[in-house]
Amino acid sequence: MRVFKAFLWVVIAVCLANIFWIVAGRPHMTAQEAQTLREEYTRPAASSAPCEAAADEPDIDFAALQQQYPDIKAWLTIPGTVVDYPVLQSGADDPEHYLRRNYDHEWRMAGSLFFQFDCTPQSRNLVIYGHNMNDGSMFGVLKEMLDEDFLREHAALTLETPEGVRNYTIVAAMKTDINQLPFTRVDFAGDEDFLSFAGQLLQTSGYTADQEDRLLTLVTCAYDWEGARTVVVAVETE
């Protein structure tokens, strides 16, 4: 009987260790992998001061990075937060491929940030999804954007792409769902259609969209009701 009890305690301890590793260790691993990847593919610093024409060139060598990991389409950074991750994209046949996988297709509890499958670099609304992790990693920080002071202090973000660096300013944060607000739209019939969409998306922000605007919409789970999402919207700046 004592041997059985000892065995049972060993099993319980192993299970608890595995749960801790899944909940705490895996998200940390994902963040560390992202930083290691960035360091590996960051261009060497130029020996002389860069010219102004190169100011929008990404630090990341996307040509080399995409040779190894073709599904990495961009790199998102929100300074002052933990968000400093690659953004991946899979196809319509498996749009949530990276929901629980890293850039190397290995299983990760935290998954990866990923574009909606039908986004393109020309989309007037780019949509990125990420997990709302309890440890604050991935898109766990988005819920903090609901606080106006926090949003103001962390409103700037950058999206590095093979085409160049895009700078954005966050103008809105909300809890909603797809039935209340069609935040996943990426294609529009024309300027009027886009402005109607942007007006609806930003109606509580005080920001008035222009037909030249390009939006970046960040989405993560909220748990206030079934299907609830925290949605953060940024506008590209020059």
From TrEMBL:
Organism domain of life: Bacteria
Pfam families for the chain: Sortase
Residues the record marks as active site: 131 (proton donor/acceptor), 221 (acyl-thioester intermediate)
SUPFAM superfamilies: Sortase
TM region positions: 6-24
Molecular-function annotations in GO: hydrolase activity
Assigned keywords, A-Z: Hydrolase, Membrane, Transmembrane, Transmembrane helix
Stated name of the protein: Class B sortase
